[in-house]
Amino acid sequence: MPLGMRVVDGLPENVWSYDEVNYNPSPRDVDKQAPRNGKLEIMVVLSEDGWPYTQFNNETRSVNSNTASGKEGLLNEEWSKAVYIRREVVRVWYIVEKAVRAWYIERKLVEPRTCIVIGTPGIGKSFACGSFLLHQLLHYEGGLLDVVAYFVSKYCYVIHNARPGVPGSVVLYSDQRAAVLKINEMAYCKRGFVIVDISQELKEPPRGLPTNFWPTVVLTSPDVNHYEQWVKDRNDKLIYVNCDDERDLKAFVAWQKLFPLGQDAGITDELCKEISDEWKRVKQRIEQVGPLPRFVFSRGSFGPRFVELDNAIDGITLNNKAQYMGILRMDSEWKPDHVSHKLVKLVRVRVGLNGETYRCVPLSSDIHERVHRRMLQILKGTWVLLRLAPSDCRSAVGLELLSFDAFLYYDVTEAVVDKLVYLQRDGETCKKSALAKFNEKQLRLQSSKCLGTAVNSFDK
């Protein structure tokens, strides 16, 4: 099988459970991959009429997707009907479904919940997550909801669910204010739901939505300006969406090639090589610009994005290094008004017992290393001057300039290690180095000759 993948028509026998998709590591484990079990890699949902994000196949008047259209883009005529569903998207649905159930079925809430779905730009929040939520809501509990309103770009689609003797229908509102008035009118007598897709044309949810009657989902980037004011007086839930796993993207590459051939098509060596070569190209792009479908699946989008990353890294100077230090430490916040946000992705982490927040980490190991090398390069001149100062002074200044990266320099590490005192634990029979469980590759050391052992380095 090409890339170890095959395409199967119909519903999967076992869709991932909430426990399988709800991976929330602690902040210290932020760079670890989520565990993967089972044979199902991705699902694909198709709609012959398209989706709100593609204006139901009307691509001549396309919304501001920032995603390439045409032969090589995700939203060409053939693929605009298909929505690629991964574990993170299903996790969002589980959380939204719980909120819908609590409001309409269990009647547990005083007011409906607003869910703010937050993720790195380019991962498919709008096309994949928004479309899948719409699909699930329209089919939920045999058609529990009467209406789903979907705000995207400058438009609003009011989608009426089918009822006995009455077919379903879609009403397009070019004036969102008129749509809000109609939604408020229906909110008193119909069960509904609102989806708001934040974009350049729609920078925050429309005012006046009946969020005290209908649950709402807002799809947005981590830019707090899009939702901070909106959630102040509402029963909100922040849902953070991770980027695509490498296996997700690998499965999508295989699906793109295999699906048009049909389930019973023969697999030739030529086809296997074609798919393998395509995956190699995509994998290389992932390392260069990160796991963002918007850029790795389109040559036309990849090139300009790579140039943007180049410019961002080349723009690091001694004066603006602070924001990039946070990237290397994996503790920076999202800065939409700073070029550094093009170098990072959002990763969900656990806070408290059931809470979640996020960390910004480099989009790929390649980008991490490029930022790291640039930081060392701009500090090179500073280190030349510091060689005239005592080693203790070099240590202090080095820590201030580059934090943990200062320990990559032999003279700094030597000066610090020389002043450490080993604290022996109760019942400990011999001294143990805290670095013993790591190897040089894990620590990314240029040299380890100064580390020594617990005995000869910490014996005071």
Characterization of this structure:
It is built from 15 helices and 11 strands. The chain has 460 residues and is of the alpha/beta class. Among the domains are: 41-241, Rossmann fold; 406-458, no CATH class. The protein has a 7-stranded mixed β-sheet, sandwiched between helices. α2 crosses α3. The longest helix is centred in the last third of the chain and has 22 residues, at 365-386. It is globular, with a radius of gyration of 26 Å. The termini are far apart.
Largest sheet: 7 strands, mixed
Structural class assignment: alpha/beta
Main sheet: which strands, in order across? Answer: 6-5-4-7-8-3-9
Query: Which band does the percent of strand residues land in?
Result: 5-15%
Overall pLDDT, averaged? 82
Residue runs with pLDDT of under 50 for 5 or more positions: 59-77, 441-460
InterPro entries: Crinkler_effector (IPR052980), RHS_C (IPR046836), RHS_N (IPR046835), Trypano_RHS (IPR006518)
Domain Retrotransposon hot spot protein N-terminal: 2-107
Domain Retrotransposon hot spot protein,C-terminal: 116-423
Protein name: Retrotransposon hot spot protein, (RHS), putative
Search tags:
single chain, 460 residues, alpha/beta, Rossmann fold, seven-stranded mixed β-sheet, two-stranded antiparallel ribbon, 15 helices, 11 strands, disordered C terminus, RHS_N, Crinkler_effector, Trypano_RHS, Retrotransposon hot spot protein, (RHS), putative
The gist of it:
Residues 2-107 form the Retrotransposon hot spot protein N-terminal domain. The chain is built from 15 helices and eleven strands.
